[in-house]
Design brief:
Helix content is 40%, strand content 17%. The chain has 17 helices and 15 strands. It is globular, with a radius of gyration of 22 Å. The two termini are 43 Å apart. The model is unreliable at 1-6 and 15-22 (pLDDT under 50).
């Protein structure tokens, strides 16, 4: 896994984005307050940070004569953000219509990636990765698209997944195939039976592939220790834990935290998804009024508004969602108490959760749940890099690391909402100023508006059936 990731990261950074390739630009950010997000996290005030060849070249050293100066006075520099749970749109079809037909629905990769970049999300973990996502990553590596680093997980489930395994033997083979296909991680899914779940995780360990995912329904009603098995290293939602119990007490949250600590299992709290589900269950206006909705592809806008699986849920179900959310806050408090690492992820791409924008929502929710501003920031920077085992490359502001950075107008250590006050973003060493960010977003908005009438989710489904 480490060899594959290192290869991809080095390929991405040795193959500079086009502008940097052609001009070999050196940037010097002057008089800036650096929040390094290292474990010590000692803020460096009025610093000079030099970026060269896609990396952080120096901090508080001399400025090269040919450097482009960026004034960072009264601004704050943090590492690029990492969303550890996304579902990025990619070309595809639900089935093969006929040989050579190609995808039924195509997307412009840059428009898919722009919301990430505009929000300073410079690394994403796609938990429903397909071969099309390898193609997207290649576009980014070549410099054809400005986009985040992409880590890719292959889903293996008992049903309702792109790889189905119903026996331990099938599960082991699925992991081996995923390894051969170039996937870096395995995602276990809801419908695996207990024996296959364990076999998949065991085989992933043999193949040196980390495992993230759901806790199968097969464990419901059984002792919690049964699903905390060695090498199950990251739970995709706090919801996976609340589904396993009817006891929403702090003592139960502490039990989960203790078992996770003992097993070395980290958590993606993913508070955003339960909040979003409750809101759209009550009114579709809560979808239309979302910040960033105008940057969602017209087909997906149509899907969220006309075929929304949450809208119209009963008051009893909404009350259940809210109870789960309250328990998830207790889970976060217990995991913090027991020192279990938590990383930020949002489920971006499911109904009502918008790529890039959602991570700022998640950070605010984590702080409301009891994390400090610094802890929330670390969950979306250093800790994600540590779980990927690439913390020597990204996640903090230190010399030698890749130049994935966000320049903020206000201090996020004082108010976590300040992560949204973005002045500039640096992606793989490429400088994207506010004007460029706004221009990129406007391109997406204009295309969406011009093509809105061409995309109708229900009509698409009807054509497929016919």
């Amino acid at each position: 896994m480490l060899v594959v990731i290192s290869f991809n990261l080095n390929a991405q950074n040795n193959s500079n984005l086009k502008n940097n390739q052609e001009e070999n630009i050196i940037y010097a950010i002057t008089n800036v307050n650096v929040i390094p997000l290292t474990k010590e996290n000692k803020v460096i005030e009025n610093a000079t940070v030099v970026l060269k060849e896609n990396k952080i070249f120096s901090i508080n050293d001399s400025i090269p004569k040919n450097a482009v100066i960026i004034d960072g006075t009264n601004k704050w520099l943090i590492p690029g953000l990492i969303d550890m749970h996304v579902h990025t749109l990619a070309d595809g079809s639900p089935f093969v219509i006929y040989p050579t037909k190609g995808p039924l629905v195509s997307y412009k990769t840059q428009y898919n990636m722009t919301p990430y970049i505009a929000n300073g999300v410079t690394t994403v973990f796609d938990l429903t990765a397909r071969t099309e996502h390898f193609g997207q990553r290649n576009e980014i590596i070549r410099g054809d698209v400005i986009g985040p680093r992409m880590a890719l997980a292959k889903v293996i489930g008992g049903k309702k997944s792109n790889t189905i395994a119903q026996t331990p033997s099938d599960g082991r083979n699925a992991v081996r195939f995923a390894k051969e296909e170039g996937y870096e991680f395995i995602k276990v899914y809801t419908w695996l039976n207990e024996e296959t779940f364990k076999a998949v995780i065991n085989e992933a360990e043999k193949q040196n592939m980390k495992v993230v995912g759901h806790i199968p329904v097969a464990f419901e009603g059984k002792p919690s220790k049964n699903f905390f098995i060695p090498h199950f290293s990251l739970i995709a939602h706090a919801e996976e834990l609340s589904k396993q119990t009817n006891d929403y007490s702090y003592e139960k949250a502490q039990e989960f935290a203790r078992l996770a600590k003992e097993n070395g299992t980290w958590l993606i709290p993913n508070l955003t998804n339960m909040i979003s589900i409750s809101k759209q269950a009550k009114s579709l206006k809560n979808i239309e009024n979302l910040q960033g909705f105008k940057y969602v592809h017209p087909l997906i806008q149509s899907k969220w508004l006309t075929s929304n699986g949450y809208y119209g849920a009963s008051e009893k179900l909404i009350e259940y969602y809210n109870k789960q959310h309250d328990f998830h806050i207790l889970i976060i408090k217990a995991f913090k108490e027991f020192g279990v690492p938590m990383v930020s992820g949002t489920d971006a791409g499911i109904s009502g959760i918008i790529w890039g924008f959602s991570l700022h929502d998640e950070l605010k929710l984590l702080v409301e749940a009891g994390l400090t501003n610094e802890e929330a920031l670390a969950s979306a920077t250093r800790l994600g890099a540590e779980w990927f085992e690439i913390d020597d490359k990204i996640g903090t502001i230190e010399t030698g690391k890749f130049a994935d950075l966000i320049l903020l107008n206000e201090n996020p250590l004082e108010d976590i909402s300040n992560t949204q006050k973005i002045s500039d973003v640096f992606v793989n060493g490429k400088w994207i100023n506010r004007s460029k960010i706004d221009s990129m977003l406007l391109d997406v908005e204009k295309w969406n508006n011009a093509n809105k009438e061409k995309y109708d989710w229900k009509k698409l489904l009807s054509n497929l059936k016919n």
